[in-house]
Amino acid sequence: MKYKLLGRSGLKVSELCLGTMGFGTEGGWGADAATSFEIMDAYANAGGNFLDTANIYKLGTSEKIIGDYLSTQDRDYFVLATKYTLKDNTTNPNASGNSRKNMMRSVEDSLKRLKTDFIDVLYLHIWDDITPIDEVLRGLDDLIKQGKVTYAAISDTPAWVVAKGNTLAELMGWSQFIALQVEYSLLARTAERELIPMAKHFGMTVTPWAPLAGGALTGKYLKGDRGRIKADSKRLDARAESITKVVMDIAQQLGVSESHVALQWTMSKSFSCIPIVGATKIDQLKDNLKTVDVVLSPGHIAMLDDASKIELGFPGDFFNEEAVKVNSFGGFYDMVEKR
Fold first, then answer.
1. 276-278 and 324-326 strand pairing
2. Predicted TM-score (pTM) above 0.85
């Protein structure tokens, strides 16, 4: 396992992040504690050190399992990321959202479940469109100054909000967001319109969730296997099927699994990108870990890019139109009318 710096920080994390949303059996699915321990052991033995969880995952069970595991391990080896925002109880109207009150309450509860004194990376889980971004940043910075959180990150939030936040943080001397967690895969590339260019500008690492599109990109649905994706999901529509077939063809050429191809595509991007791979079975994790040894040729990457390309919309596509010419002398755009 190779290590990368997380955003504009000196924090070293493994090139694959272990997603733990499935740690716990609530809802009739997931891994029990013993299996979760086995998965984390295999991940650590392979050099993995980056764990991703949230206060809401399995109603707190994910954090509890990780806490029990870390209490038997070298805590400082692991980079532990969790999240706050989503409602984890019904005791009061402030038990959800991005507010400072919910942030402080949620972090204290997470620390107890995780059996640790500090959280390495705290994500805002999802933007609530209510709380001022300066309230969020001041709260995160206070937690960092208290030593309860080491780094701040953000997930599932509009690009303009993140950009405003990091700019304000730089101006005020507060801790900036170093990572951006969003949905990103061969089947979901809309983050390339605004979010990823913004992350590149601020030097943030992108940590994609669902890099395998819920398993659709493994090809198992095309092979007749059943899973948790509903039949009418966009992850199984005609476009998704055509993209998945390209993944399957390349996997067959290289003699690797489809998940290796789909994951390595995200790891081969021009920006810092560390996919989050979830596992509820040890065999799933062991297969995903083999991704780090797979190399996609420029030709394979071009095939995947072409099969999964999207319309960037305005202004992305506008900048790429033939009607927009770059003046090499002044760097201005010359508009050429098409008649």
1. unpaired
2. yes
Give the CA angle between residues 318, 324, 330 to the nearest 5°.
125
Instruction: Specify burial of residue 79 (Cβ count, 10 A radius: 0-12, 13-18, 19+).
Output: buried
Q: How would CATH label the architecture of 3-314?
A: Alpha-Beta Barrel (3.20)
Pair type for strands 12-14 and 3-5: antiparallel
Please spell the DSSP secondary structure of 233-273, one letter per residue: -GGGSHHHHHHHHHHHHHHHHHTS-HHHHHHHHHHTSSS-B
pLDDT (tens digit per residue) in 221-254: 998 887 888 888 999 999 999 999 999 999 999 9
Is 57 in the active site?
yes
Strand ranges inside the chain, DSSP E: 3-5, 12-14, 17-19, 50-52, 79-84, 119-124, 149-155, 177-181, 205-206, 276-278, 324-326, 333-335
Extents of the domains making up the chain: 3-314
The residues with which 183 forms a beta bridge, in sequence order, are 209
Task: Tell me the C-alpha distance between 119 and 103, whole Å.
Answer: 13
Q: Which of 57, 84, 151, 184 is catalytic?
A: 57
